[in-house]
């Protein structure tokens, strides 16, 4: 069968091709004839195919333009379809109206949500949407009883009078739920939503038990807020009042997800309603929350954090069995938690071998202003369907207060119609729902979860509600929104409205009051409000972090590997199958690495990295490496992925040697990330926080690019352990080095990490040899310590022969926090040394070169490879060799106000001997990390190296 014939036959079964739709399809075909690009791809494909299908009389489209469409409908009629009537003369008006009806249906599906009843406060009138008015299409009152074909709808009828059709469309698309989904390119997804919404006209049909449960959840949500408001007057809690339906929503999400086989749910949310979630969803004991308000909670963390940043985990029962809930810790940067949650979920999915996310569900709760305003939203959404970061779809819930912080006018809070419009970039559907209709909120939640589970795609429930109090409880919102807060002040509350509704339905006159009284009694007793919470349940997928707690950074572990193992691994990772044709430059790299494995060449940086990864995965430690260009390496030193020069398709056109090290090896994953720093680093931090047995590495393309992820570094990596007790072993590789590449490609801002370094919270290293990168990467996993590792990786040293290492340095020894003087002649004459240069990084090789050129033999050079925690013992031991030296000089490439100088000077001074002076040689203080002119860079570099050996000005400390 030809391609055109197969397309033609496929479309014969399409539901659009009923006789009643003939005018609509003919109009599409008319547009196609004028401009093929003006119709959807699937219709264009169909019309293209029809051009080559002969009619029963042998004519073709070139003879009669509309003949293919006429033939199509004639064929349908023969097969038992709706009788085809070709409109001529007086019937042409009926044909026009049929087309108009299809346009009217499409309008309600596309923009009906703009006329939906969504605002509980009813502050503005519904907008005028001409496309939703039958008069816009030429209909009059006389047409109300005219019957039209509705076979492409899901109202359960093949035909409907216009009046009934309009009522059905308005109930479905303009009630308490306003659905946006028609921008999806996938027809199956659009038809899915049409079937789900139109079949029930977007109205739930819950039984009495379900309704009472919804009321109970609303009562709990309101009850906690009112209890706290009276007991802890004026204390910040970021109340949920006005948005109580959110608790009913997330409760439904958890219970329904459990019934569908989900076993873990990870939740990320900011402050609004967080305490309510902790108590009424997660099952935190109210008495424990009260203790935090009373400042009597145990202080078992070095720093701690405010109560509305705290995370929590628990296990609850659902119809499908126990579900583990995790509420992620989140700082005041609101949406920054999003990628962290996604990374945490991906780690759990990988641990369960659950690639589709059937067992693990990410849930992100947003505020309306933050959802529209913060860039990390877009970055995280961009990860959603990529292979290295997909989590099988996220359910987003927006607590839409319609106000943000103090901005009540949408013109000032965003530039889009809806706060959720950013999700259209990945074609995620959105259900806008009136928060004062809790049954509609629960229905929207059910539909959102069903969609996610079926299509593995993000979906949004936008609960349009209000904020009863200010941004926090010390705020007076009427100062800036007087009219809005008059309406809020007159609002009886969602719980009261729903209780009255159920009472009117005969479900109990005092039901609402009885529930409120019972909840208040539970609060007074400090009892659980979630029933039942499982206290003894332990999942087999839970991670035991106890082996990594209480360890000292000085416990280095054994990072050397036996020579036989080295050779075996080297052979494995340098083998490229004959079926793969590498680029000639890559072939040279792998041939050289094979020689390095045999000990015929010194080992370079790329081989040192590869051998660290290979030895780890062979030992059962997984490796996950991500970042921009990290597969080949920004500076093309890595080549972890070999691209077949004869094939480009990813799944058959690449080969990754590190995935073929051993039969039962741990996974090696390398991901060329999207062009994002903040979301990707947040994702990797979240992944590392849930998998201590995977070496998780984020590599910046240039170290400076970490600027784009500074929030993740500040709020999570540097302080997560002291604030929240969250142990994390993430590794950052930040290319750093002054090679004349300008201000944005020189510095990884070492000084920022040094400023944040305290409480042994992280490791900051700047290795200078291939063996050093090998040992420090292995050390990160081999020793029982999980702390963030910040590596200032080089650029020029990647191919510098002086930075290579002999094979012996890999089969014995370990990471050297301080590398001693390497010139044996100077070491032997230690008593004659008059100056000790201490440095870190690439500048070491510049200093050695100058010393050799000038034949200087009374200056020793020490390399500090670990800047934090500072290796006092190792540094003091090396400095002691040169007790007769007068000067100790710190030399660095960075400007004086940057780099490590202001931080290490005190450490160095602490280890100096009586009479020694401490000085500095480097670039002068600068507002910019580096100069942009090559000649100026060279002048500065020469001056700082000369200064290290010459007269030092401005000694700052004397021992």
From TrEMBL:
Record's function text: E1 component of the 2-oxoglutarate dehydrogenase (OGDH) complex which catalyzes the decarboxylation of 2-oxoglutarate, the first step in the conversion of 2-oxoglutarate to succinyl-CoA and CO(2).
Record SMART domains: Transket_pyr (SM00861)
Enzyme Commission numbers on file: 1.2.4.2
PANTHER family tied to this protein: 2-OXOADIPATE DEHYDROGENASE COMPLEX COMPONENT E1, 2-OXOGLUTARATE DEHYDROGENASE
Cofactor(s) essential for the protein: thiamine diphosphate
Any one annotated GO CC term: oxoglutarate dehydrogenase complex
GO biological process: tricarboxylic acid cycle
SUPFAM superfamilies xref list: Thiamin diphosphate-binding fold (THDP-binding) (SSF52518)
Protein name, per record: 2-oxoglutarate dehydrogenase E1 component
UniProt GO molecular function: oxoglutarate dehydrogenase (succinyl-transferring) activity; thiamine pyrophosphate binding
Family: Belongs to the alpha-ketoglutarate dehydrogenase family.
NCBIfam families recorded: 2oxo_dh_E1 (TIGR00239), PRK09404.1 (NF006914), PRK12270.1 (NF008907)
Domain annotation Transketolase-like pyrimidine-binding: ranges: 603-800
Entry annotated with the keyword Protein transport: no
Keywords: Oxidoreductase, Thiamine pyrophosphate
InterPro entries: 2-oxogl_dehyd_N (IPR032106), 2oxoglutarate_DH_E1 (IPR011603), DH_E1 (IPR001017), KGD_C_sf (IPR042179), ODO-1/KGD_C (IPR031717), THDP-binding (IPR029061), Transketolase-like_Pyr-bd (IPR005475)
């Amino acid at each position: 069968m030809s391609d055109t014939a197969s397309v033609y036959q496929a479309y014969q079964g399409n539901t659009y091709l009923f006789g009643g739709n003939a005018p609509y399809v003919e109009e599409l075909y008319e547009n196609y004839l004028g401009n093929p690009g003006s119709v959807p791809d699937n219709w264009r494909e169909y019309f293209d195919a029809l051009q080559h299908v002969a009619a029963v009389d042998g004519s073709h489209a070139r003879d009669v333009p509309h003949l293919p469409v006429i033939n199509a409908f004639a064929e349908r009629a023969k097969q038992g379809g709706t009788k085809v009537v070709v409109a001529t003369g007086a019937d042409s008006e009926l044909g026009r109206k049929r087309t108009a009806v299809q346009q009217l249906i499409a309008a309600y599906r596309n923009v009906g949500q703009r006329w939906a009843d969504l605002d509980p406060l009813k502050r503005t009138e519904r907008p005028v949407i001409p496309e939703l008015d039958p008069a816009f299409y030429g209909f009059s009152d006389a047409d109300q009883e005219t019957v039209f074909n509705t076979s492409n709808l899901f109202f359960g009828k093949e035909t409907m009078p216009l009046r009934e059709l309009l009522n059905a469309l308005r109930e479905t698309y303009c009630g308490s739920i306003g659905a946006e989904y028609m921008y999806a390119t996938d027809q199956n997804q659009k038809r899915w939503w049409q079937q789900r919404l139109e079949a029930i006209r977007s109205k739930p049909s819950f039984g009495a038990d379900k309704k009472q449960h919804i009321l109970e959840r609303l009562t709990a949500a309101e009850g906690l807020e009112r209890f706290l408001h009276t007991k802890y007057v004026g204390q910040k809690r970021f109340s949920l009042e006005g948005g109580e339906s959110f608790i009913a929503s997330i409760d439904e999400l958890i219970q329904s997800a459990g019934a569908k086989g989900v076993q873990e749910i990870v939740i990320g949310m900011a402050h609004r309603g967080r305490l309510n979630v902790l108590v009424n969803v997660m099952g935190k004991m109210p008495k424990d929350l009260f203790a935090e308000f009373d400042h009597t909670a145990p202080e078992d963390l070095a720093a701690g954090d405010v109560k509305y940043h705290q995370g929590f985990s628990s296990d609850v029962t659902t119809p499908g069995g126990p579900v583990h809930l995790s509420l992620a810790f989140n700082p005041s940067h609101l949406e920054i938690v999003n990628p962290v949650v996604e990374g945490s979920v991906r780690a759990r999915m990988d641990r369960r071998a659950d690639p589709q996310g059937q067992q693990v569900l990410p849930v992100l709760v947003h505020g309306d202003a933050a959802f529209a305003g913060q860039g990390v939203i877009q970055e995280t959404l961009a990860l959603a369907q990529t292979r290295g970061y997909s989590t099988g779809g996220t359910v987003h819930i927006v607590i839409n207060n319609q106000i943000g912080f103090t901005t009540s006018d949408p013109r000032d809070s965003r530039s889009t119609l809806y706060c959720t419009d950013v999700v259209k970039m990945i074609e995620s559907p959105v259900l806008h729902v009136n928060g004062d209709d809790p049954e509609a909120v629960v229905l929207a939640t059910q539909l959102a979860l069903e969609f996610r589970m079926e299509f593995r795609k993000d979906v949004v429930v936008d609960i349009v509600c209000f904020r009863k109090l200010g941004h926090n409880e010390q705020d007076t919102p009427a100062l800036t929104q007087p009219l809005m807060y008059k309406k809020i002040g007159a609002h009886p509350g969602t719980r009261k409205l729903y209780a009255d509704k159920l009472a009117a339905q005969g479900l109990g006159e005092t039901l609402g009051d009885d529930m409120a009284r019972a909840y208040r009694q539970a609060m007074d007793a400090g009892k659980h409000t979630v029933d039942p919470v499982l206290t003894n349940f332990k999942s087999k997928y839970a991670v035991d972090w106890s082996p990594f707690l209480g360890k000292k950074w000085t416990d280095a572990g054994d990072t050397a590997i036996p020579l036989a193992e080295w050779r075996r691994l080297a052979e494995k990772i340098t083998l490229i199958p004959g079926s793969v044709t590498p680029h000639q430059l890559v072939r040279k790299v792998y041939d050289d690495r094979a020689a390095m494995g045999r000990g015929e060449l010194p080992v370079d940086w790329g081989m040192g990295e590869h051998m660290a990864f290979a030895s780890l995965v062979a030992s059962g430690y997984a490796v996950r490496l991500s970042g921009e260009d990290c597969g080949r390496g920004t500076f093309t030193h890595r080549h972890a992925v070999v691209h077949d020069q004869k094939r480009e398709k990813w799944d058959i056109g690449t080969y990754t040697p590190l995935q073929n090290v051993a039969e039962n090896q741990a996974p090696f994953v390398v991901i060329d990330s999207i062009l994002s720093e903040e979301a990707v680093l947040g994702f990797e931090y979240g992944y590392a926080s849930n998998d201590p047995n995977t070496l998780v590495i984020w590599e910046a393309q240039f170290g400076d690019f970490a600027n784009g992820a500074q929030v993740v570094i500040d709020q999570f990596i540097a302080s997560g352990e002291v604030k929240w007790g969250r142990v994390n072993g993430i590794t950052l590789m930040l290319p750093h080095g002054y090679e004349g590449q300008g201000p944005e490609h020189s510095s990884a801002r070492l000084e920022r990490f040094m400023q944040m370094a305290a409480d042994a919270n992280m490791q900051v290293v700047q290795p200078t040899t291939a063996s050093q990168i090998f040992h420090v990467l292995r050390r990160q996993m081999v020793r029982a310590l999980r702390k963030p590792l910040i590596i200032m990786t080089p650029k020029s040293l990647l191919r510098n022969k002086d930075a290579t290492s002999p094979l012996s340095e890999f089969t014995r020894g370990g990471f050297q926090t301080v590398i001693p003087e390497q010139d044996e002649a100077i070491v032997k004459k230690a008593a004659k040394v008059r100056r000790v240069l201490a440095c870190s990084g690439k500048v070491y090789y510049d200093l050695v070169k100058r010393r050799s050129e000038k034949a200087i033999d009374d200056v020793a050079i020490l390399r500090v490879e670990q800047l934090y925690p500072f290796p006092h013992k190792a540094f003091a031991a090396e400095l002691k060799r040169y007790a007769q030296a007068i000067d100790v000089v710190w030399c660095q490439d960075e400007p004086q106000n940057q780099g490590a100088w202001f931080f290490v000077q005190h450490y160095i001074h602490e280890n100096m001997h009586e009479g020694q002076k401490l000085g500095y040689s480097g670039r002068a203080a600068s507002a910019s990390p580096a100069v942009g002119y090559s000649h100026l860079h060279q002048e500065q570099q020469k001056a700082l190296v000369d200064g290290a050996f010459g007269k030092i000005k401005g000694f700052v400390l004397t021992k």
